[in-house]
Design brief:
Elements: H1 14-25, H2 31-50, H3 60-72, H4 77-96, H5 123-131, H6 139-155, H7 159-163, H8 171-175, E1 180-182, E2 187-191, E3 197-201, H9 204-216, H10 222-226, H11 244-257, H12 266-281, H13 284-291, H14 296-299, H15 301-317, H16 319-322
Antiparallel strand pairs: 1-2, 2-3
């Protein structure tokens, strides 16, 4: 770890120096932490000078203004939160010493960091993964994995919903929040978050993959073993319901075998389902229902993914976007 170099800054007032000595001697903070605290206090002193106030006369409104300035200057929410933590520690100590009537930083919070966009595959990569057929693979495993991928991408299932699917509905499955597949009607019935049930259409590709898997599902166990199988749609080698961890592992291996540069996980296929459906239809409400989101706000994140797709198309195709500036 590189040492932190303290650049020459505003001279710290006596109360700030006393606090740093308290942090060094009584709190026994590490040298790196003390350096960061010193930088934070120098920054605060500079801000205070900008509003013609001594350090101990600052109020919450000033602190919020400083936060807004840092944020506008490009500092991240996490970075601002760390600075506020240092300032808060100083004013907590100052209040205990009777130097200030209250801590002006106490209720000031850093701006929330923007939530990262969910990762989704491009359409070509998603199709390549779904159509990938591993060479020299066990036909039983290949059929099972192909059906799992088609349901994850074709229906937007969560991994918990996928592994919870049964062959047929039953009162026990219903009470435990497990869904089932109605292949004749080409529908998947699942119980999502909050035990909220939803029905999803099963596309032709997924229906074919499921029919192929069901034809092989009991084959390795023989007639006697088949009678003792778990009622789950997807099984492991021992005849028990497959686990979410196994789905993650098999999907990662399949994406590598398909030549994708990004290791794929189950929720990435759910994101891909939503993003690609929204790109084609533009129907946000329909996507919300298919995903089982209680709030449209949750689904709206995919409009940002859709805009990224449109912006990329524009950058690559529009003549004015591709025109180089004159030197």
């Amino acid at each position: 770890m590189k040492p932190i170099v303290v650049e020459p800054g505003p001279q710290l007032p006596p109360e700030a120096l006393r606090y740093l000595e308290h942090a060094r001697v009584e709190k026994r903070l590490a040298a790196r932490t003390l350096t960061l605290y010193t930088l934070d206090l120098q920054r605060l002193v500079a801000f205070a000078a900008g509003v013609d106030l001594p350090l101990l006369r600052l109020q919450s409104a000033h602190i919020r203004r400083f936060v807004a300035q840092m944020h506008a200057g490009g500092r991240s929410g996490r970075g601002i939160a760390l600075i506020l933590s240092g300032w808060r520690g100083f004013f907590t100590w100052a209040a205990r010493q009777g130097l200030v009537p209250h801590n002006p930083v106490q209720d000031v919070r850093a701006p929330k960091a923007p939530k990262p966009l969910p990762k989704a595959l491009g359409v070509d990569d998603a199709v390549r993964l779904a159509e990938h057929a591993a060479t020299r693979a066990d036909p039983w495993l290949e059929a099972r994995d192909a059906a799992m991928v088609e349901l994850l991408y074709g229906c937007g299932l969560r991994v918990g919903e996928l592994v919870g699917l049964d062959l047929v509905p039953s009162p026990a499955a219903h009470s435990q929040g497990r869904g089932w597949i109605d292949l004749q009607a080409r529908e998947a019935h699942v119980f999502g978050k909050g035990s909220k049930r939803r029905s999803l259409p099963v596309g032709q590709a997924a229906a074919r993959a499921l029919a192929h898997w069901l034809a092989l599902r009991e084959q390795p166990f023989g007639p006697a073993g088949a009678a003792r199988l778990d009622g789950a749609l997807f099984l492991g080698r021992r005849g028990a319901r497959i686990t979410a961890q196994t789905v993650w592992l098999r999907l990662r291996q399949r994406s590598q075998g398909a030549g994708l540069t990004t290791p794929v996980h189950p929720h990435m296929l759910r994101h891909s389902f939503a993003s690609h459906l929204l790109q084609s239809s533009g129907d946000l409400r329909a996507v919300q229902e298919l995903l089982g989101h209680a709030s449209i706000t949750t689904t709206q994140v995919y409009t940002r993914l859709d805009f990224q797709h449109l912006a990329k198309v524009y950058d690559q195709a529009h003549p004015r976007a591709r025109k180089k500036p004159e030197s």
